[in-house]
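Module 6 notes. Inverse folding takes a fixed backbone as the condition and produces residue identities as the prediction. Think of it as a translation problem where the source language is geometry and the target language is the twenty amino acids. Below is one complete input and output pair. Work through it position by position during the lab.
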């Protein structure tokens, strides 16, 4: 213990260097000092800590200075008047030291230590390293460790092969005094960082005595890429050693690392715990199909794998597993993963059953089994990065993992998902499950780019800033424009207003030429808009609205056919009657004069509330002589609305297959923004029901997907709506 009050002889001034914010390294000499001593900071014996003293003999010095020593001490307080003094407690007489007014830079301090300690320098440094590594690390302390290791570490071999694997780094090379198992390392990489190497060793004929090859995985390290490693330090049986990185080292692709680990395990040895770790690491995907090599009756195949940009991966395939050996199926790419057997929908695949029925290895297992070997699954938010392989990992009972590489295509959301409809029987419950669990979530998750105006052409005195304008949107289906333009021209309320005709770029040559001829013939002012990214009429309408600056826009789908003059004037007057804060829509009719749409209404209560069209299929006479009335949502096939409200609502949602739900979605967004929908029964417009899908059953499944998506987005809001 350091006495409370002690008479002290004049204290020597000693060299020191800071190590972090709270510690210093002090070097001095005395007659004798124990290995562990208390030290009092700033001359105050009440403020004591214990420190380790590293000593060496000074043969030429006087007895009072025969022992050199090095110790860590707390840093003195800069604001203390008596700072700069430390007191070392030792048996008999304490030792008081005065710190030099200016600290030495670390490199200069270590150079002075090397000169002072002489032949004892390696031993002293070795002890100092133990102290520094045992304490709480900080950048300055680690820098000191790095400089010390540069001075004392002996050559220990070379790292010749490296490769990244998940969160670890594979190393292979040769070394002296290196033992198999878990070895703590220090990695020089700009600074110094701790790590651990789980490694095995193997014999090499090209090395001298005492040297062996090694292979293993770096763990618990901050290194993210092998190229960051400059050298590695480890403590061997005879002190610290340095592993240099060979100048022409081999950098492995991550996919090849498991094979190198398997090779090392076959020819090398390691303790059981290390062997188990390395074997688990070696059971990773290496680019091969290993499912086909299994001894158990498990096989798998992929019909298609498509990356839907910004959304995820859609996979259609089959898994033959009659004995239920597979406990999990995971889709992986780099560090990303998705357990797909928790998400997929199983579908009947009799072709798979037939293919394996005659195989003696698998046929008996098929007896009395269902043929639901197929699966369809959407893995959300898993987008492989460039260069990263995509594969399935099958966890097999008693066999470990097996892998199936995928070669995915990239596709747009809507066309990719529409192809699934052709594989399903719309009358089956399986089709409904596939649509609800796979198709609808995939379409809703996709970030689909909006339609883009490529070019515009004006015919006549077109005024883009007119207070009212008509926007006509065409999809890819052939439309006869002559009758439409004739009806527009003979309507005195439509003839003077500017008209925007938006059409897909693929059909613009034909449509554009015909529209120019008709516009000039009838003296109409028309802006022709060429649009990219059109999937339906709603996309064309949106592009058309954004290609003008009308205050009020009348929307007319290419599927609509005008039935009477004066339709636009009546809709506009109803719109103005509500202060320009509504969506005014007419009655929509089928070609046989039955009702297609006569207002969308809220039916039911609470969670069961839905938006429905009550009069579909009724004769036109069923609605009588009703006047304009507010409804839950309008019909965007033909309507009048504020352009500013349309833009503020974000236009049409892109995450639907059909225009029906797109229009309903838009009208509800406008309603939430203060622009309710108004039905004007006296105005009647035909809408040609020629179908948006090539085959009826595909249309039915698309409508089911849209209704599922719509309910997920709007069910809660609708349950709380009034009306």
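Target side of the pair, the amino acids:
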């Amino acid at each position: 213990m350091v006495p409370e009050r002690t008479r002290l002889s004049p204290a020597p001034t000693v060299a020191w260097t800071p190590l972090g914010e709270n510690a210093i390294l002090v070097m001095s000499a005395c007659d004798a000092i124990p290995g562990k001593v208390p030290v009092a900071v700033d001359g105050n014996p009440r403020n004591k800590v214990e420190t380790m003293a590293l000593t060496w003999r000074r043969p030429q010095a006087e007895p009072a200075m025969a022992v050199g020593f090095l110790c860590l001490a707390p840093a003195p307080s800069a604001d203390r008047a008596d700072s700069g003094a430390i007191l070392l407690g030792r048996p008999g007489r304490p030792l008081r030291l005065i710190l030099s007014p200016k600290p030495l830079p670390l490199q200069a301090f270590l150079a002075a230590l090397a000169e002072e300690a002489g032949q004892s320098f390696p031993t002293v440094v070795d002890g100092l390293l133990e102290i520094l590594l045992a304490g709480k690390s900080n950048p300055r302390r680690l820098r000191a460790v790095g400089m010390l290791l540069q001075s004392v570490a002996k050559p220990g071999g070379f790292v010749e092969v490296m490769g990244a694997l998940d969160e670890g780094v594979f190393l292979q090379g040769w070394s002296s005094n290196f033992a198999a198992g878990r070895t703590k390392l220090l990695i020089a990489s700009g600074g110094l960082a701790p790590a651990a190497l789980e490694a095995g060793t193997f014999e090499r004929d090209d090395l001298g005595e005492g040297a062996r090859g090694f292979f293993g995985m770096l763990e618990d390290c901050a290194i993210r890429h092998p190229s960051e490693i400059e050298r590695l330090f480890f403590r061997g049986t005879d002190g610290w050693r340095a592993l240099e990185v060979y100048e022409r080292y081999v950098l492995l692709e991550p996919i090849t690392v498991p094979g190198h680990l398997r090779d090392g395990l076959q020819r090398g040895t390691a303790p059981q715990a290390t062997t188990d770790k390395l074997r688990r690491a070696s059971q990773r995907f290496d680019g091969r199909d290993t499912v086909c090599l299994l001894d158990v009756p498990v096989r798998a195949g992929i019909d298609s794998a498509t990356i839907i940009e910004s959304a995820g991966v859609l996979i259609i395939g089959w898994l033959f597993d009659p004995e239920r050996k597979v406990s999990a199926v995971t889709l992986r790419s780099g560090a990303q993963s998705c357990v797909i057997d928790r998400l997929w929908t199983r579908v009947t695949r009799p072709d798979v059953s037939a293919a394996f029925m005659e195989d003696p290895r698998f046929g008996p297992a098929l007896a009395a089994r269902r043929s639901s070997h197929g699966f369809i699954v959407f893995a959300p938010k898993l987008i492989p990065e460039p260069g990263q392989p995509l594969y399935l990992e099958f966890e097999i009972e008693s066999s470990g993992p097996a892998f199936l590489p995928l070669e995915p295509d990239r596709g747009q959301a809507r066309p990719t998902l529409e192809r699934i409809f052709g594989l399903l029987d719309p009358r089956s419950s399986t089709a409904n499950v596939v649509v609800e669990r796979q198709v609808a979530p995939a379409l809703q998750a996709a970030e689909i780019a909006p339609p883009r105006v490529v070019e515009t052409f004006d015919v006549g005195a077109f005024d883009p800033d007119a207070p009212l304008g008509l926007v006509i949107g065409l999809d890819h289906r052939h439309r006869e424009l002559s009758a439409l333009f004739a009806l527009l021209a003979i309507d005195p309320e439509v003839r003077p207003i500017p008209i925007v005709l938006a059409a897909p770029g693929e059909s613009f040559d034909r449509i554009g030429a015909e529209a120019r001829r008709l516009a000039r013939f009838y003296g109409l002012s028309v802006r022709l808009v060429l649009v990219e990214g059109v999937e339906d009429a709603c996309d064309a309408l949106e592009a058309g609205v954004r290609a003008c600056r009308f205050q009020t826009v009348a929307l007319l789908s290419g599927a609509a056919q005008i039935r009477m003059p004066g339709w636009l004037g009546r809709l506009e007057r109803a719109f103005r009657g509500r202060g320009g804060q509504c969506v005014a829509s007419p009655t929509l009719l089928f070609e046989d004069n039955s009702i297609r749409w006569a207002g969308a209404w809220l039916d039911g209560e609470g969670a069961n509330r839905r938006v429905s069209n009550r009069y579909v299929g009724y004769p036109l006479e069923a609605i009588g002589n009703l006047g304009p009335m507010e409804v839950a949502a309008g019909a965007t096939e033909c309507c009048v609305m504020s352009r500013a409200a349309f833009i503020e609502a974000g236009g049409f949602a892109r995450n639907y297959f059909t225009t029906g739900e797109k229009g309903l979605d838009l009208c509800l967004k406008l309603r939430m923004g203060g622009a309710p929908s108004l039905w004007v029964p006296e105005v009647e417009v035909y809408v040609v029901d020629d179908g948006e899908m090539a085959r009826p059953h595909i249309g039915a499944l698309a409508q089911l997907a849209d209704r599922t998506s719509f309910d997920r987005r709007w069910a809660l809001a609708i349950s709380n709506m009034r009306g």
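Reference fact for the lab report: Confidence is low (pLDDT under 50) at residues 1-8.
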